[in-house]
Amino acid sequence: DLRIAARQVVMDLRAARMRAVAENVIHRVVFPSGAVSYQPQRKSGSGYVNDGTAVSLPRGILISDCNATDHGISFKPRGNAATFGTVVIRNGNGDERRIIVDIAGQVRVQ
Length: 110
Prior knowledge:
The chain is about 20% helix and about 40% strand. It is built from one helix and ten strands. The protein has one helix spanning about 1-25, and strands spanning about 25-30, 35-45, 45-50, 55, 60-65, 70-75, 80-85, 85-90, 95-100, 105-110. Strands 1, 2, 3, 4, 6 and 7 form a six-stranded antiparallel β-sheet that branches. Strand 1 (about 25-30) and strand 2 (about 35-45) form a beta hairpin. The radius of gyration is 13 Å and the shape is globular.
């Protein structure tokens, strides 16, 4: 389940990046620490609005940490990251996966 969750997060981050480019507006994904879901958002005026419903992680998986500003990884319309960092997800056994987004907007799992 942890591997599946990591792939899910990677795909949703890549989708946010593609939407930012396609719609020419900043998109981000917010990862609250300790939560079992995360929220895609898009820039609207001076703030952000939810872009759909929150995405639930598989049962038993939670967001351990996100070191990005305001716990959100965001992408600019050119595809590079406006805020970047590492999202850590964890299962009940303490196993972790790190999803890393660099300044160029590249997403990978460690």
